Amino acid sequence: MQTVKIAETSAKSILKELASAFETRYTEEYGEAYIEFSNEYGEGKISGINFPNGVGIFRFETRLNEDTCLDFHGDLIHPFKFVYVTEGRLDHSFRDEDIVHHIEKNQSVIIGANSGSGNKIMFPGDIPISVVMLDVDRQKFVDQLTFPLEEMDDIYHGIFADTNAMRTLYHHTQYSLKMSYLIQELRDFTTPGLERVSYYGAKALELLTFILMLYRDDAQPEDSQSVIRQKDLDKVKLVILQIDQNIAEIGNISSLAKSVDITESKLQEGFQVLFNCSVHEYIQRKRMETAMLLLLKTDKTIKEIVYEIGLNSRSHFSKIFKEKYGMTPTAVREKK
Question: What is the CA radius of gyration of the chain?
Fold first, then answer.
């Protein structure tokens, strides 16, 4: 295993150490540090930037030829690390512990090493790995708050009040669907320069907000959790399949949620994230699309079509059909 020892905490220092280890060129633009390589060590693009509020954001897109450990050590107080794995996997251990944590795709962790320890983050070799990592400088973050630390909610006070790193923190969870979309937005944003720096600064805070919301939500009993996680997406997709394949006999929102063991609020949020509409609006849209297809491709009567899409009233059907398509079902049939 290759080990890269990193004693500093700033993005520029870390990227310079990585540039040296991977024998590649270090560059900077608008305060953001970059390295890119394709050589005997493998392939990779790594970037990092720190903001005045104490938040830093790093992106790793790598495929290394051998297992590689980033060994964050030294006497400095290490930042909190909020890690999001979007492809591949990582392993983590604290320098003063033998326990190895496995972080899989679609999972996130909050890592806080105590002052006598540090972090070992291991990238397995020969697999593509995509990671977004937030570093939060404890003291800088607290100093920029606009309210006394004592007013912070107890659940967050336990994290941020520990500016001297007296305790170890490790919290492992699946990241939420909103976090997944935020990370994708980061990957899709390619505008360089000041716009990129401003965008990354805003998204870093947004991402931090959602991981803290998830951290609070994880403390609740599972049946009381309101944040939709990546694991819930499979259940939302099962409901979508039910609607698409059985529009004539689809139940109400409550029965749909119960059929896949998900709360109604999570089901609604899933549809908002995926389609920017409610479950009812999606069902309505699917009914109208199915009706249009039946009008154009079959000789079924309008009454039969109304029944086939799960409605009872022909007049109601005609009203909502015209609202969507600007013409009545009868007019569509006559044009056919």
Answer: 25
Which tokens in the block code for residue 78? 């290490």
Convert the pLDDT of each residue in 217-237 to its tens digit. Answer: 888 887 787 788 877 888 899
Topology classification of domain 228-336:
Arc Repressor Mutant, subunit A (1.10.10)
For residue 136, what are the β-bridge partners? 55, 80
| Phi, psi dihedral angles at 301 (to 5 degrees) | -70, 160
Q: How far apart are the first and last CA of the chain?
A: 69
State both tokens at 149: 């630390």
* CATH number for the segment(s) 2-222: 2.60.120.10
**Cα 117 from chain centroid?**
29
Ranges 43-52, 100-109, 225-234, 261-270: which has the least confidence: 225-234
Return the sign of the alpha-carbon dihedral for residues 158, 148, 77, 64: positive
Q: Is 292 helix (H, G, I), strand (E, B) or coil?
A: helix
Residues 6+ apart with CB under 8 A from 284: 320
Q: Which residue has the tokens 């990238």?
A: 123
d(CA 311, CA 307): 6
| AA letter at 290 | T
Other beta carbons within 10 angstroms of residue 31's beta carbon come to: 12
